[in-house]
Amino acid sequence: MAYSFSQQLLDWYYKNKRDLPWRQTDSPYEIWVSEIMLQQTRVETVIPYYERFLAAFPTVYDLADANQQQVLKLWEGLGYYSRGRNLHQAAKMVVDHFEGSIPSDYNTITELKGIGPYTAAAVLSIAFDKKHAVVDGNVIRVLTRYYGIEEDIRSGKTKKKIQTFADDLIPFDKPGDFNQAVMELGATVCTPKNPLCNQCPLSSDCVAYQAVKTETIPYKSPAKKIPHHQIAVGLIVNQQNELLIALRPNDAMLGGLWEFPGGKKESGESLTQTVQRELEEELGVKVDVFNKFKELKHAYSHFKITLHAYWCVITTGNPKPISGQELRWVSLSEIDQHPFPKANKTLIEELHQMDNSDLTRFVNS
């Protein structure tokens, strides 16, 4: 069955694979960059980021020599920013400890920051022809349907079973193509909803297809309810018509990105009280809070937020980076040079739409 599965799949892949930029290279560095970007991110979204990133950092030496702000600015909007920070740190490790060569064995490559079992298997198989089977969401869907696995795919036991099947199926010859073929099938044919079974090279032996269970396999137990937080931030303008921004610590979520200072609303306080408390805790200043500038919603992987931005004026104290790494006053013409999370970036886009020759007049208007 293993030979039949792999051969049919590879025959299909060579005829139907998408023309993607990371499939035009045998560079371990370029393949590694693509695999990091593709984690939890759609191919269509990744392509322009991948091309811009490699144009800026064509070699691992270029990436290692860059500063983190340059890396995060190019990553801006791609999300899961720890991927970019880890990739940057790992590039430094490759240059410092491996003479610029991506390690080609499993134990060594997993020592690099941000490389876990999936990424290691992908890079080693695609770049070095090593027999390591990848298991991502696409692979899980293909194999659970093919073998008729109806257990909960959130279960560690089920994941281990799927990994065993993948390890048994992957051939010694062209393991990288095989891994890409399974993922390609899951992405383009064996889709979550309305799979194109009539176009699948494996349908004649697929248990879920034969049993008409493609809509119920794979089974995933309900996720926990996603929390929703109210976040309030302050837009502070100085006499030079500059806005105050704060750099998030590297060990925090969205670390290394800039933001407008503020934070999560606590029980029993108003949004304006949230701004006052957060700015005193973060910056050591007291502020008067005036008109709301904007309210917007944003979803992260494990929670959602509504972001409320208020114009503020400092009444007592000078801002200091008590809880962050750095504070900076920037004009609107300079602000786009800094990497921001998506929600803050949306606020900046709104600020650019205003007649912003004198931001101070909007504070009390």
UniProtKB/TrEMBL annotation:
Keywords: 4Fe-4S, DNA damage, DNA repair, Glycosidase, Hydrolase, Iron, Iron-sulfur, Magnesium, Metal-binding. Its EC number is 3.2.2.31. It is an enzyme of class 3 (hydrolase). 8-oxo-dGTP binds at R248, E259, F260, P261, G262, N344. One of its GO terms (molecular function) is 8-oxo-7,8-dihydroguanine DNA N-glycosylase activity. Gene3D superfamilies: Helix-hairpin-Helix base-excision DNA repair enzymes (C-terminal), Hypothetical protein, domain 2, Nucleoside Triphosphate Pyrophosphohydrolase. It catalyses: Hydrolyzes free adenine bases from 7,8-dihydro-8-oxoguanine:adenine mismatched double-stranded DNA, leaving an apurinic site. Residues 227-353 form the Nudix hydrolase domain. PANTHER family: ADENINE DNA GLYCOSYLASE. This is Adenine DNA glycosylase. It comes from Rhodohalobacter barkolensis.
